[in-house]
Amino acid sequence: MPSVDAAPAPAGAAPVEAVAARAIGLRKRFGCTVAVDGIDLDVPAGAVLGMLGPNGSGKTTLIRMLLGLTRPTAGSVELLGQRVPDGIERALPHVGALVEGPGFHPFLSGRENLRRVATMEPLLARGAIASAVDAALERVGLADAADRRYRGYSLGMKQRLGLAAVLLLPRRLVVLDEPTNGLDPAGTRDVRRIIAELHAAGTTVVVSSHLLAEVEATCTHVAVLQSGSLVAVGELHTLLAAGTTGLVITTPDVDLALRTLRGAGATAYRAERTSSEEQAVVVGDDGPPAPELIALLVREGVAVHEARRSRTNLEELFARLTEDPS
């Protein structure tokens, strides 16, 4: 499927570059296995990009190559305007990343672990370390557990501490690989809030997640991978709109509506519904225009409670893009 070009960064983000990260012909082979196969991808500065794909689609490998953690077999990477790996030392201080889960010392407390991380931040003044650590712990909801040993943390608490390390100082780019892994619903809401705060501050965020509802709620752009290839990329609302077809008409007179619509030459069928939903019919785009159909239904005595365009959600779009063509 041809990809959709990504749009410019949102107004007000004021990025230094129009593109925060760029992959050009990126390919990675592990022995006989091709994990990433010739990907071209621009991450617009100021965007929140959701990176989606089934397990084994190449998401984490692509992220690791963008961050200079894995060398590509072919192709090149630019990160915050710097070529990777040559300019990686100039770019990385402005990047916060949580990739493949956090790694900390088990016998140190959460606060002590975070202080050790903070001392290695070249852009964080030594005198500001204590306040930066306290602020990051508070922001991720770990202030009350900050002095407990890391080995006693739950999976969700470990994930929160990894996120706190990303938030020690303002970043131009934040990369989060499955940030809600192990989190309860409250923790998931916290991650959603933090992503929104980062986006409002003009930070570019890349999120790899299998929770499609969270991606749909937080991301401005999406990139969908399948078997190491990029099958779609672009603004989320544009991709969803491209999958929108037909009209949904809510009515208690379904049988009469179907006869009337089909008699007018439109493709129409009964909509699936849950027990709490009203009855509805779905009308294809192959018949008369929507205003004519609504007027016709009213003339024929059909009670029309609502008429709206059918909207594809991200789960449906993802299933369509990643289905097995065989």
Automatic annotation (TrEMBL):
Domain of life per record: Bacteria
Keywords annotated in UniProt: ATP-binding, Nucleotide-binding, Transport
GO molecular function annotation: ATP binding
InterPro entries: AAA+_ATPase (IPR003593), ABC_transporter-like_ATP-bd (IPR003439), ABC_transporter-like_CS (IPR017871), P-loop_NTPase (IPR027417)
Domain ABC transporter intervals: 21-252
Statement: the UniProt record of this protein carries the keyword Nucleotide-binding: yes
Gene3D superfamilies (alphabetical): P-loop containing nucleotide triphosphate hydrolases
Keyword presence, Translocase: no
Family classification: Belongs to the ABC transporter superfamily.
Protein name, per record: ABC transporter ATP-binding protein
